[in-house]
Amino acid sequence: PRPGCFAGSEVGGVAGGGGGHDRRLVQASTCSGMSASARKASRKSSRYSDPGLGEVVVEIAHAFGSHCGSGLRDAAVYADQAGLYILHPVGRYISFRHLGNGEASFVIESPQVQGISACAINRSRTVVAVCEDCSAPAPRTSSSSSAPSSPVAITAAEPRAAGGPLRTQVTLYSLKTASLSADRQPLRTLGDLGQVGRVVCVALSGDAEATLLAVASQAPEFMLAVLDWRRNEVMGRFKLTDTMDRLAISPSSLDASVVSASGLASLRLWTLPEKKNEAGVGADGEPLAAPAEDAEASDELQDELLALAQPSGLAEVPTHFTDHAWMEPADGSLVACTEHCEVHIISARAGSEPRLLRSIMSPFVLSVGREVLPRSLRCFAGGFLVGGDEGVLALWERGQVDADEQGVWDRQANADAFQHVRSCCVFPGGGQAQSSPAITCVDITTAGEEVSDNLLVGFADNSMGQLTLDDFRQGKNAADGEKVCCNLLCGGFHSGPISCIDVAVQRPIVASACRKDSSVRIWNYTTKRCELKWTFQGEEPTCVGIHPIGYLVAVGFSDKMRVMQILVDELKPYREVHLRSVRTLRFSNGGHLLAVAHSKSVTVFGIRTMAKVAKLQHSQQVVSLCFHSEDKTLTTCSEDGSLVEWNAHTWTKANEFPADRQSGVEAYAVATGGDAGDGQTCVALTKGTKSLVRFFTDCKPSEGGDVKLPEHVQLQALCQHMGMSGPVIFGATSTGALWYHSEIAGRMVMKELALHSGPCLDVRLSADGSTLVTAGEDGTIFVVNVRGLAMIGEGGRGGVTNSDVVMISRGEIQAREEEIQLLASEAAALKVQIVEDAARMQSECIRRVAEARQKDQETIKNLRSKCESLQAQATSREREILRQMKAMEASHVKAADQLETDYDLQILSEADRFRQMEAELRRLVEQLVNLREESFRRVESERTKQHEHLLQRVEEKNAEVNRLKDLIAFSQHRFNTMLDQEAMEQELERDELVRQSQATIEQQKGVEYKLKKEQDTMLRGLDMMEKDRNRAEQEQVETDHSVKTLTEQVDRLQREVNELKQERRDREATLRDKELEIGSFKTKVNTLKKFKHVLDFRLQEVTLSLQPKDDTIIELGGKLKELEEEFENNLQVHKQMEARLKEVDDEIKDKVAEGNNLREVIKARDREIFEFTEDLRGLATNETDVRRWPVGIRAIHRKHVRPERLSRGYGGQAMQELGRQIDVTEKKADRLSIKGRAAEEECQSDLRHRVDDNFDLMHELDKLRKDRKDLHIQVKDFELKVQTAEKKRADAAARKAAATKALALKSPAAMAALEDQDSDYDVAMANTAPHGSFFGARAASQAAARTMRGNSSAGNLRKSGAVHRTHEEKRAMQKLLAAADLRSQQVQMQSLENKLLRDQLAHLERAKAAETSPAAGGGLAAVRRATDR
Among 92-106, 143-157, 713-727, where is mean pLDDT lowest? Predict the structure, then answer.
C-alpha cells in the first residue's frame, strides 16, 4: 500500500491477515459439519459415524467460559438491538449465544490466532471489530473465493511451535442479518497495521456504517491510529507515552472527528486533521494512489492527530481513569470515572476548549456509606450506568431540560440535570457466594418504549448475568434494599484456571475443579448449563473425579479426599479420608474402585464401603494413573518416567519400566489403550525443551519409536481411544490446543485444534468416543464433537443416555408429598366455592336484569322529554347563528379591503428604503476591501523584516549551542573516567573481602581437623558426642554452600547495580540535552510571543477603524429584520382569522346535519309510538273478549319490541360479572401457588443453612482436636525439659562435690583453679543459651540430650574410680568440653552471619526497585550504606 494506507482485504477480493478464507460461522450442533446427502450416504454405507476411512474429525459443540475477568474491554455485549443474542470472546473464539435456547455459534479463527486482545461493537450494533494476536507473519494474499461454501468440520492445522513473535490483525464482521448464518464472512481483515504494535483497545465510530476504526497499542510501540477501513486509508496517528485501556469516538455528527482515550494517568482528546482531498476514492472503491514526490509530505501533514488541551477544571495530579463513554443522545459530552471514586462529566466539542461541567464525588449512593471503586461505565438514551467493586451498580438519569429559542440544549444544564435513581449490589443468582464480584462490563439494549430494556452485566469471576432495567429501577427480585438478583447465563463459569475435569459414562455431565474460586461445578453438555456449583470455603480442590454412573464425585485436597453425592441442588458429603498431597484420582470404569495418587503412593478404595483395598508405592511422585477399559490393570506413572502396571485382582506388579534418572526425562500424563488392545500404553514426556509421546507394550517401549512434538510444546494430559485404523491419542498442549494423533492408511497423522487462549490443562473423552471435553488456564471448558471413533450398531457402545433420574433426600420427598396433598385439598375447596359462586351469580344476574329493564323504561321517558326541549333550543340557536354569520361576513370583507390597501403602501415605501440601503452597503464593502488590502501589505512587509531578524538570531544561537555541546562532551568523558576508576576500586575491595573469607574458611577447616584427632583419643563414653559433632559438620557444609550461593547472588546484584548506574548516567545526559533544547525553544517562543503581540496591536487598530461602519451595517440590518418580522406577524394574523372563519363554517354545517338527524329520529320514534298506541286502542275497542287479549298483546310485542336492543346490554353485564368473579378466583389460586413455592424455597434455604452449620461444627471440632494434640505435645516437651534441667543440676552438684573432695586432699590452689573453671564453664553456657534460638527447638533438644549423655558417662567413670585419674587427664577432658562449646558458638555465629547476608541481599533488592523511581539517587546511597555495613 501507498504511504498513509494499510494492508487489508474484503470479501470477494484479497484476503489478508491469515483470516479471510479460514473464517466461517459453525452452528453448535452435532450434525452441522455434514450435508444431507453425506449423512444419507453415511447411514447406508457404514455402521460407523466417521466421515472417511480412518479419518477423525473434531468440531466445537459448546463452550463454557468468558473473558469478563481478564481485563478485556466489552467482554460481553448484546449483538442485536432486541437483546436476543450476546457476543462475547471465549478462548480464542468469538461466540454468538442465543439467550432463549442457549445455542452458540463460533467464528472459526485461522490456526495462527493465539488469542483475542480487544473487541468493540458500534452503537447501532451492525459492525463488530475483533483484534487478534497471531503467531506467524502475515500470509500471502489469496482470493477468498477459495473458501468452502458449506459449513464443514473445523479445519485442523498441523502442530506448530510456540514462543514465536506475535503480530496483531483486526477483523470486522457485519451484524445486520437477523439470524446468525453459518456462512458469515468478515467484511475486512487488516493484517498489517504498519507501526502499530499489539492492539489492546479498539473503538468504532457511532454512524450506522461504522466508517472509522481507532486502535491503540501497548509497549514498546505506544501508538494511536485512526483508520477509514472502508476506504483503506489512515486518517491520523499519534505517538502515546503510556498504555491506554479505553478508546471511544464521538457519536455526534458535528463532533465525529473527536477521539478520546483513557488510561493509567490521563484522559486525552484528539481531532482528525483536515483532509485536502476528501473524495480520494477511485471508481472501483479503492483509494487513489498518491504521487511519489508527495507521499512523504502527506505522511507528515495528514497522518497526525491534533491533540486537544486537557479539560479545564480537572485536578493537576495524574489520575487513573478506569473507564469513559460518550453521552447519548450525542451532545458533545462524555462521562469518565476514576480510581478516586469520582465521575466527571466533560464537554468535548470540536473547535472549543474541553472543560469540566460537573463532578460527582460519590456515584454509588449506599446506606452504609462505603467507598466503591468504579470499574465500568455505559451510557444510554437519557442516562448512564456505573459498575464497581462488590457488584455495585448505579443508575443515573437526566431530568427534564428545556431548549432555548433555536432548539438547542445547554450542556451545563444537561450535566446538572443528572439525578441518582438507584444504587444496589447485583448478585449472581443461584450461587453460594456471600459477596458479589466486581462488575467489569455493562451493556443495555434499546428495544423501544413498549418493551423494557435489558441489562447485561459481566463480573470479575467470568460470569455473566441479565436483568431488566425496570426490575433494577424498582428493586424487584431484591434480597434487601441494596441487593438485586440477576439471571446467570449458563449458570455461571469458573473464575480461574481449571485444574481438573472428568466425564461421566451414564449421564451427559462433566465435573470440574478450580483452585482460584475453591469450587467444583457439575456441567450438563446437552442442556448447556451448570447444574451445580459447590464452594469449599478455605479449601482448594486439587483434582476431581466423577463416578461412571454420575451420582458420586470425588474431590481431592492438599490434606484430604472427600467423596460426595450429587443431589438435585447440592453436593452431599458421603465419606472423607485424610491423605497428604492428593494430586490426582480416578474411578474405575466399572465404578467399584477409586484410585487416589498422593505423594509417592497410590491408595485404592472400594466404593461400597470406602475401605482401603491396597496401597501401592513408587520411588518418585506419582503424576498420573489410568485404569484398563475392563479394569484388569491399573497403570501408574511417576514424574521421572517410571511406569508400573498393577494387577487389579492381586495388586501386585504385573509389569514395570524403571526410568533412568540421569536422562533428565520428566513425565506428565499416561493413557492406556483401552479397546486398542491389552498392554498398549502411551506416556507424555519432556526432555529439556523437547516433548514426545512414548508407546509401551506391557511396560516395554514399542518398536515404532517416539512421536515428537514441536519445541516448547508440552502435553499436559492424555486420553486414548480406538479408531478405525488404530488407536487415536488426544492430548492437551501447553499452547492451548487439542492435539490428536491417528493412523490413516498406514500413515501417522498429527493435527491440532486451537481452543484456549492459555495452556490447556486437562482433556477427557466420553466412553462412547463421541464427546471430548477440554479445560484450560483461561477458565474455559470446550465441548467438542468427535466423529470417526464412536461405533453405532451391533458391537458398538451406545451413546450417553440423558437420564432424568436424579438423587434426592427422603425428607425433601416427604415435604413435596405434603405440599401436593395440601394443594389438592385447596384445589377441591376452590372447585366447590366456584360452583357455589356460579349459582349465586346466576340468581344475582336475573335480579339485576329485572332492575335494569325498569330503569330503562324510566330512561326512555326522560330522553323523550329531553329530545323535545333540545329540538326547540336547536331551532332558536340556528336562527341566531345565521344572523351572526351574516354580520361577521360583512365586517370581515371591509377589514380585508382596508388591510390590503395599507399593506400595498407600506411595501412600496419599504422597497425604496431597501434600495437605498443596498447601495450604501455596496459602497461600504468596497471601502472595507481597500482597507484590508492596505493592511495586508503592511503586515507582509513587517513579517519580512522580522523573519530576517529571526534568522540572524538563530545563527547566533546555533553557534552558542555547538560550543555548549563541546563542553558537555568533555564533561561527560571526564565523568565516565571517574566512574570507571571508582568501579575498579570497588572490585579490588570485593576481591580482598573474598580472599579474607577464604582464609577464614581454611582456618576453620584446620581447627576441625585438630578436633577430630583429639576426639579419637577420648573414652568410649564420648561416642555420642562424636556423632553430634558429625551432624554439626554437615550443617556447616550446608551453611558454606548457602554462603557461596548468597555470594554469587551478591555478585549478580552488584552487576545489575552497575548496569543501572550506567543507565542512570545515560538518562541524566539525555535530560541535560532535553533541558538545553527546551531553553532554546523557550527563547524562540518568547520571540514569537513578542511578534504576536505587535501583530495583535496592529490588528486591533484596523478593527477599531472598521468598528463604526460595522455598527452602522448591523443597525440597518436590525431595522430591516424588524420590518420583516412585523410583516410576517401581520400576515400570520390574517391567516389565523381565515382559518378561524373556516372552522366556524364547519361547526355550523355539523350542527345543521346533527339537527336534521335528530329530527328524523324524533319523527321515527313518534311514528312508532303512534302505531303502538293505535294497536292498543284497537285491541281495547275492537276486541270485546278479554280472554283473547294476551294473544293480541303478544302480536303487538312481536311487532314493536326489538330483542336485539334488550340482549345487547343485559346479557353482557351478567357475563361480565361472571367473568370478573372467575378472575378473582383464579387470582386467589395463583396467590396460593406462589405461597407454596415460597414455602418450598424457604425450606430449601433452611436445609442449606443447617448443612453449612454442620460443616462449620465439623471444622471447629477438627480444629479443637488439633489444638488438643498440640497442647499435649507441648506439655510433654516441657516435662522433658524440666526433668533434663533437674537431672543436669543434680549431676553438676554431685560432680562438683566429688571434685572438691578429691582435690581438697592435694592442694588448695588446685581447688581454686577448679572453681574458676566451673565458673567459666557456667558463663560460657549462659552466653551460648540465647544464640541457640537460631537453631530452634530441635537444636535445643539435641543439646539437652548431649548433656544427659555426658552426665551419664561421667557418672560411669566416677563409679570405676575417679581417684585413680590424674590431674592432666581431668584437665584434658575439660579442654575437650570447652572446645566443643566453642565449636557450637562458632556454628551459631556462622548462622548469624548468614542472616546478616540475607538482610544485605534484601537491602540490595529494595535499592534496585527504588532506582526505577524518581528518587533513584537516594536509593543508590541506601544500597551503598547497606553494603558498607
Answer: 143-157
Which of 975-987 are b and which e, b meaning 16 or more Cβ less than 10 Å from the residue's Cβ? eeeeeeeeeeeee
CA angle (764, 767, 770) in 5-degree steps: 80
Q: According to the model, what pLDDT value does residue 317 have?
A: 62
Say whether 1120 sits in a helix, a strand or coil.
Answer: helix
**Among 224, 248, 19, 253, CA closest to 122:** 248
Q: What phi and psi, each to the nearest 5 degrees, are found at residue 532?
A: -140, 145
Q: At what angle do helices 1023-1182 and 810-1015 cross, to 10 degrees?
A: 160
Rounded-to-integer distance, Cα 72 and Cα 458, Å: 11
What is the C-alpha radius of gyration for the chain, rounded to an integer number of angstroms?
A: 47
Residues 511, 502 contacting (CB under 8 angstroms): yes
Q: Where would I find the H helices in 1304-1415?
A: 1308-1331, 1336-1361, 1367-1411
Most confident of 114-118, 206-210, 1178-1182: 114-118
Q: Can you tell me the distance from the alpha carbon of 503 to that of 766, in angstroms, rounded to the nearest whole number?
A: 6
DSSP β-ladder status, 258-263 and 14-15: unpaired
DSSP secondary structure string, 297-313?
HHHHHHSB-EEPPPPBT
Q: Per the structure block, which three cell numbers stand in for 740?
A: 490428536
Q: What is the DSSP letter of 278?
A: T
Taking the C-alpha atoms of residue 357 and residue 345, their distance in angstroms, rounded to an integer, is 6
Torsion angle of the four alpha carbons 1166, 1168, 1169, 1170, in this order, in degrees rounded to the nearest 10: 80
pLDDT tens for each residue of 1267-1293: 877 877 877 777 787 788 778 888 877
* Residues 618 and 636: beta-carbon distance below 8 Å: yes
User: How far apart, in whole angstroms, are the C-alpha atoms of residue 816 and residue 307?
Assistant: 69
Contact status, residue 15 vs residue 143, Cβ threshold 8 Å: yes
> What is the pLDDT at residue 967?
77
Q: Quick check: 1098 and 938 in contact, CB under 8 A?
A: yes
The residues, ordered by sequence, that sit 6+ positions from 235 with a Cβ below 8 Å of its Cβ are: 212, 226, 227, 228, 272, 273, 275
pLDDT exceeds 90 at position 2: no
Query: Mean pLDDT of all residues in the chain?
Result: 76
**1158 to each of 896, 958, 1144, 1214, how far by Cα in Å?**
38, 106, 21, 32
Residue 10 pLDDT grade (very low, low, confident, very high; cuts 50, 70, 90):
very low
DSSP string, 376-411: EEEEEBTEEEEEEGGGEEEEEEE------TTS---H
Asked whether the beta carbons of 311 and 354 are under 8 A apart, the reply is yes
The winner for highest mean pLDDT among 188-197, 376-385, 786-795 is 376-385
Tell whether omega for the bond before 220 is within 30 degrees of 0, i.e. cis.
yes
Which of 213, 187, 188 is CA-nearest to residue 201?
Answer: 213
pTM of the model: 0.56
Task: Compute the distance between CA of residue 595 and CA of residue 608 in angstroms, rounded to an integer.
Answer: 14
Cβ neighbour number for residue 202 with a 10 Å cutoff: 22
> Does the pLDDT of residue 613 top 60, yes or no?
yes
Asked if 693 and 728 touch (Cβ cutoff 8 Å), the reply is no
Q: Which residues pair with 587 in a beta bridge?
A: 594
Are 1189 and 1181 within 8 A, CB to CB? no
pLDDT in tens, 761-799: 999 998 888 899 999 999 999 999 998 875 544 344 445
| Nearest by Cα to 684 from 699, 703, 698, 665 | 665
Task: Tell me the torsion sign for CA atoms 1192, 1195, 1196, 1201.
Answer: positive
- With beta carbons less than 8 A apart as the criterion, state whether 124 and 446 touch: no
**Burial status of residue 1042 (CB atoms within 10 A of its CB: 0-12, 13-18, 19 or more):** middle
Residues 349 and 357: their CA atoms lie apart, in Å, by 12
